[in-house]
């Protein structure tokens, strides 16, 4: 995974922060002196550049940037504080050049390996999951998904089978030789879910549940971190940073659409985040066209587009009988639809030089 | 359409509603439940007066059943429309590969860009002569001189040309020079412009407004179709969002979404959608994989000297590399350009 962590450590040691402070045109000499004093106290070296109308100060330092940044904003005479570096380190490509490859059981995600995650929204029964696992595995899926704890918009909707669901998921995964991923909603569930799952999912609604992120960061399970419904790319990477900073390096990001004014789809799939994130982070990113569109008629095209855009995998909800599904049936593909999509996906994967096993 | 009545709607209100339905020439089918009454109304949802039913006392909701557009819908025309722009076809299995600078700046620059994009495989040349710039102080375009340059270069390199029309008064002028007229995102709901362009005999490239839904876009297309011009190509170019690291948010799902309900071709403009050359190639590939009928990409031989939108332009070499890539994706999708 982090096989070039020595390089990483070196990069961290060399990591310096540069902030640009733009002073207001009417700042006083006293304010200027005070600013220089505070910079020194905080361990920053000032580089002053006086123009005819404006003075700007470059502040170079090694640590404590987030705290210092807030201090700078408070200083009288400072009009603007411009941050030069990204606010995350461990998630950044500067810190870790090569693509991270996350291993979930025998399945690799990233660096040319695609994760094909499939399964029902919720684990409903051994029989139903068994049928779906068998058919999606035959179609080419390599990771089985299924929710045991369900974050439903309505408190009256099916909330999941809990531990019984986890047991079913684990048993069915073992039967078909598929690693399993399932959602954790609460810090108190982590040890329990870890006993059953190969990968922990953090749902979109919990992307900024920071206690959950920190706690999951202390486990040794790979994590599937979904983008929040109105989170920017930066927000998503900051949430990943929480997990990485807590010690868990096995993070896979997931674009699943964001809220928008468009009312004919459940969310708006923001596929540009794939190259956007890949440009600035080494973490793998997969795409979930099921939640993004909420419409089976749009899922195949968006799955193809996801892989064409450079995603490291696709997460698709499949159900053998959507009309009887206890959760999100209307957005599920039928097993034959999934199998046919996977055939087209192999062609697109070949065109981008990627594989999955 | 379906009328859902309020839980406490009185007998008088129900009778009045039934009367109005009758007056409008519709047939009512009331379903009286224990707590609610709903009335199925048989007739054309889009008939004049239909929406006035929503204003009657006692009505909680009016649910239209039919799509509000007709000419643009697949119900009317199941087969894909293929739009002919000069020698280039867009739609069906034909991809429109539109490329060129944001604005026409000079004969020499456009000549150089056209030669290179044509060699790379572009089949339509773009260039703005009338520019809708956010700031009134930015370069506003060369006007008719720009149109002349565009026409001359297009002819020289045997490429049909597309350029934007911003005002109904320009339609006639622009139609004299161009093979295809573009309606920009900011004018997607400039209804007088749409009607005017609907009367011109030129294919139209209709860009999605910055906060227009798919339905809004199809309704704008309907304006042009209803005025008699059936040669409309739609263009997804991203919408406004909270994401601040890109210029807009490319809504690629609009491609299969539109194709499911309309026969019109849809192309994708990753240049305006992302505003970032590093994201354009991936989004162009994704667009073709999503089933788009072409991509629209801004190319400039010297982006740093471009008078408009230089930062989002690809260099000719980058464009050529991308086009090589796109041919492979076009093969997978069984399309050609």
Describe the structure.
The complex is a heterodimer of chains A (357) and B (337). Chain A is built from 12 helices and 14 strands. Chain A has 357 residues and is α/β, with parallel strands linked by helices. Chain A has 2 domains: 17-83, Alpha-Beta Plaits, CATH 3.30.70.1140; 102-351, Aldolase class I (TIM Barrel, Alpha-Beta Barrel). In chain A, strands 13-12-11-10-9-8-7-14 form an 8-stranded parallel beta sheet. Chain A has a 4-stranded antiparallel beta sheet with strand order 2-3-1-4, with helices on one face. In chain A, strands 5-6 form a two-stranded antiparallel sheet. In chain A, helix 4 (126-139) packs parallel to helix 5 (163-176). Residues 1-14 of chain A have low confidence and may be disordered. Chain B is of the alpha/beta class and 337 residues long. Chain B has 10 helices and 14 strands. Chain B has helices spanning 11-23, 107-120, 144-156, 171-177, 191-198, 214-226, 254-261, 270-274, 280-290, 316-332; strands at residues 2-5, 27-32, 37-42, 59-63, 83-85, 88-90, 96-100, 124-126, 161-164, 180-183, 204-207, 232-236, 266-268, 294-298. An 8-stranded parallel beta sheet of chain B has the order 13-12-11-10-9-8-7-14. A 4-stranded antiparallel beta sheet of chain B has the order 2-3-1-4, covered by helices on one side. In chain B, helix 9 packs parallel to helix 10 (316-332). The radius of gyration of chain B is 23 Å and the shape is elongated. Classes of the chains: A alpha/beta (357), B alpha/beta (337). The interface between A and B is large, with 42 and 41 residues.
